[in-house]
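Here is one chain, start to finish.
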Amino acid sequence: MSELDVLLSETERSFGLRQIQAGHARMLVIGRDLHQPIGEVWSALSDPARIAAYFAQPSGELRRGGDYEMAGFSTGTILRCDPPRMLTVTWIPPHGNPGELEIHLADVDGSTRLELLYASVRKKFAVIDPDAGEWAAGPGWEFFIDRLEAHVQGRELSSNLVSWAQMEAEERELYHARNAEWERVREEFERQHAPLPGPE
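Its structure:
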């Protein structure tokens, strides 16, 4: 098995449906095991200074019910916060199609099982749109988890990226390989479910 295949196999990928505030939505589900205690992972997901170190600086009312902004990425409202198990926020990216992000953590023998659920009313949010330079949610959220994992492991990170097009060759190859996996998962899901109404 190649190194790329090993990296691809570390993540579980699936699709589902979810009702969010913005309406009927498609949902991608990403599962990964992080070899750090749940408290450490939760701290990295909830401490603004730590989030800024691997993702972007959050601002606003960082409490349940408060509005937040992740400059260049999203605005929204913090819907639920249940330390150290669950965080749910609305997620409205610059292109304006509303979504919802939910992260679940579970302790597994001293390590952490992370499950990230991202739902959007936009049909083509999960994979690369060749007509737009936006992050694709499937490989994009996996890249977010990569950076979270590197941060909690104390590994040095490059500066935050504004666009996947700025990635180095190996990172970009992984991004496209993950995108291909999400295309496969999405196609399988679409074969089993009738199309949902909503924007492309």
